[in-house]
Design goal:
7-stranded antiparallel sheet; 3 helices; 214 residues; 25% helix; two-stranded antiparallel sheet; alpha+beta; single chain; 11 strands; 31% strand
Length: 214
């Protein structure tokens, strides 16, 4: 029994290590909540281009969200999305151009991330895809209009520097997006959450990924 348990622990540790590999391949710094947050931290996943270049990813804080919770507002979590600051560039096969990333990119990833963990409890599961498609399109339109009336400004510290974020709330949670202070390693930052207030949050560079390998 002890040997079996130890083997399971070793397999779990190896799986976590493999999950961290993608984060370690990024050529930009990852952001998470600063040291004022003392709760659980966990890795999610990274997104890469066709040539394997890591473009974005997310790390979680609090309770890992699940669409199975009813009502979903019972969950308390905040997810921070980091997006590489990329100019317009050629695609991996050299046949076209890829769009530059922006704060809107971070807002879109955060908005779609919140949707992925949302399930209206009164909705039949057979209708979920139609609902998800509709809400995803709405999230894209909102992300493309950060200066519109659906967003307000929220000032939050990034590496200790007061930074302006576009912020909005919905019945499913909140979403915000902004950028780190300008510099050679500046990135776009998005975040979404539920049950945890966005007011008073702070962001900082993740110095040690092992803090998220729980």
């Amino acid at each position: 029994m002890e040997t079996t348990s130890r083997t399971a622990e070793q397999q779990a540790s190896a799986a976590v290590g493999r999950k961290a590999d993608g984060y370690l391949l990024a050529a930009f710094p990852w952001y998470g909540l600063d040291e004022a947050f003392t709760g659980p931290r966990w890795l999610m996943q990274v997104g890469a281009a066709a040539d394997g270049t890591v473009e974005h990813g997310a790390v979680g804080h609090g309770e890992e969200p699940t669409i199975k919770v009813e009502p979903p507002q019972d969950e308390r979590f905040a997810v921070v999305v980091t997006v590489a600051d990329r100019p317009v560039r050629r695609s991996a096969d050299g046949t076209g151009l890829m769009e530059a990333t922006s704060v809107s990119t971070a807002a879109w990833l955060a908005g779609s991330g919140l949707l992925a963990h949302t399930w209206p409890t009164q909705m039949d599961r057979t209708l979920r895809q139609d609902w998800l498609d509709q809400q995803t399109m709405l999230a894209w339109e909102l992300a493309d209009d950060l200066g519109g009336g659906s967003w307000s400004e929220l000032m939050l510290p990034v590496d200790g520097v007061p930074t302006s974020f576009a912020y909005r709330e919905s019945e499913y949670g909140w979403v915000l997006a902004g950028s780190s202070p300008e510099g050679p390693e500046s990135v776009h930052i998005g975040a979404y959450g539920r049950g945890m207030s966005a007011y008073g949050l702070g962001f900082s560079v993740v110095q040690d990924l092992t803090a998220y390998e729980s």
